[in-house]
Amino acid sequence: MSDFDQSFSKIIGVEGGYSNNPDDPGGETMWGICKRDYPNLDIKNLTQDQAKSIYKSDYWDKVKGDLLPYPLNLFMFDAAVNQGVEAAIKCLQKTLNLAQDGILGVQTMKGAQSMRDDAIALYMADRAVRYTGTRNADKFLRGWMKRLFVITMGAK
Q1: How far apart are alpha carbons 154 and 117 in whole angstroms?
Q2: Long-range contacts of 29-32 (CB under 8 A, 24+ apart)
């Protein structure tokens, strides 16, 4: 099983199915794909295979998941899906003490490819800190933190 397939399986497990919570900034959502980002999709009838295709092109590929070591690629992919591609990259750059431009350039990739477990754990801590300043944290923070722990525990 490829890293993408393994990571997709973990992410889809925490994303779940259909939701239309008025407090969720993404609005109507299925498999983590939201109407706000994909206004022309029939979200309610989105299949898991369609979601997988979107995840691959719009999230995994944009964080260069195939070029990153596991489990960092899983954590970056999860951040891209849940917090946005640019936020995932900026968080990585913060962890690496690099300029946070949101671009996976040579310096960022070199740093990411040499990260050890303690730095990867710091990336997840930086993600957690970022959640605390997110809109609607008062309603969703506990669930977002649970997500981080589930993803981290499932990375073995």
Answers
A1: 15
A2: 32/81, 32/82
Q: Are 8 and 52 in contact (CB under 8 A)?
A: yes
Angle in degrees, 0-180, between the axes of helices 72-83 and 137-153, rounded to the nearest 10 = 160
For the chain, give every domain's residue range.
3-14+51-153
Among 21, 141, 40, CA closest to 83: 141
Q: Does domain 3-14+51-153 have CATH number 1.20.141.10?
A: yes
Query: How far apart are alpha carbons 62 and 113 in whole angstroms?
Result: 16
pLDDT tens string 5-32: 999 999 999 987 899 988 887 889 999 9
pLDDT digits (tens, 9 = 90+) for 58-111: 999 999 999 999 999 999 999 999 999 999 999 999 999 999 999 999 999 999
With residue 118 as reference, give the H or E element that holds it: helix 117-132
Q: Can you read off the two tokens belonging to residue 151?
A: 């993803």
| Whole-Å CA distances, 112 to 15, 46, 53, 68, 71 | 25, 33, 25, 7, 11
